[in-house]
């Protein structure tokens, strides 16, 4: 009889990782069965989902509280199922507030447990490390500095690399500009104010004001803004009406193509910074939130950097412009500096190679090794 693998994930990004992991595990365990909670990509890979993954995909502060009774029932049901009929291994993918408690209950019952994608325990709520240490036989991390943190706390860990590093294939600026109908010989500034409405409201006018100065100075010729979704597109159309005459091309999606076309990217902190690094594009990272939120975050978060390239490099590789520092003058200065920073791009190439670890194949090998007698 083949191995039985239980997996629980609650987000679309986890569904992608889970599907790739299923395919990688089948190389070692051809007769294995896979079940738990997963999305359409996992189901297409032969996974049986006992609940709809969407039921776990809750965000914000109020929505999880409203759904708490349902989430607790789901968790109790999964724990009961796997205690009564133990799988070969239980794997929680991301969604740590939901999966870690399952992992703890099952490991206490003698079942092998794995968590794939580290929570940001290295940055905030560091006390969670003690629970993770009790809950997991193995932590699989996407980033190298995360693995270092777990080793310091004596948690078994494997750095498996970031899937984006294997998935993203950079295009030349000329190729990307041709696809977007941008001038081939221009200095192009890509603006990425964020994927949330609050981010666009807080960041876009500063970005556009800085872009206007750069155009006036003759530093930048063209501007491209990839709207994250239809709602952001509508929001940006209204904002751009205030900037008549600015050479801006607003597009729907295609963020990686827009970054590939750029001479420099001005972006709001997040996964976009990692994508820009993997595309080998100079960047300036900015971030601002409400005064109250920033005060709370400053008390909770303990990390030297906010930009993923800096966290991975362990140094201030890209400029970070945070909160009150976000001024037109500062943004203009940093963009000009990055246009002349060839050393940054060489480091980006090194870090990209570091993140290209094989991802799912390496994760599968580590899981099989954990479960071997």
UniProtKB/TrEMBL annotation:
CDD domains documented for this protein: Glycosyltransferase_GTB-type
Pathway membership: Bacterial outer membrane biogenesis; LPS lipid A biosynthesis
Signal peptide annotation: none
SUPFAM superfamilies named among the record's database cross-references: UDP-Glycosyltransferase/glycogen phosphorylase
Designated gene of the protein: lpxB
EC code: 2.4.1.182
Entry keywords, A to Z: Glycosyltransferase, Lipid A biosynthesis, Lipid biosynthesis, Lipid metabolism, Transferase
Gene Ontology terms describing biological process: lipid A biosynthetic process
Domain of life: Bacteria
NCBIfam families given in the database record: lpxB (TIGR00215)
Any single GO CC term annotated in Swiss-Prot or TrEMBL for this entry: membrane
Family (UniProt): Belongs to the LpxB family.
Keyword Transmembrane helix attributed: no
UniProt entry tagged with the keyword Transferase: yes
Transmembrane segments: none
HAMAP family assigned: LpxB (MF_00392)
Protein name: Lipid-A-disaccharide synthase
Catalytic activity: a lipid X + a UDP-2-N,3-O-bis[(3R)-3-hydroxyacyl]-alpha-D-glucosamine = a lipid A disaccharide + UDP + H(+)
GO molecular function annotation: lipid-A-disaccharide synthase activity; phospholipid binding
Role of this protein: Condensation of UDP-2,3-diacylglucosamine and 2,3-diacylglucosamine-1-phosphate to form lipid A disaccharide, a precursor of lipid A, a phosphorylated glycolipid that anchors the lipopolysaccharide to the outer membrane of the cell.
Phylogenetic lineage: Bacteria, Pseudomonadati, Pseudomonadota, Gammaproteobacteria, Cellvibrionales
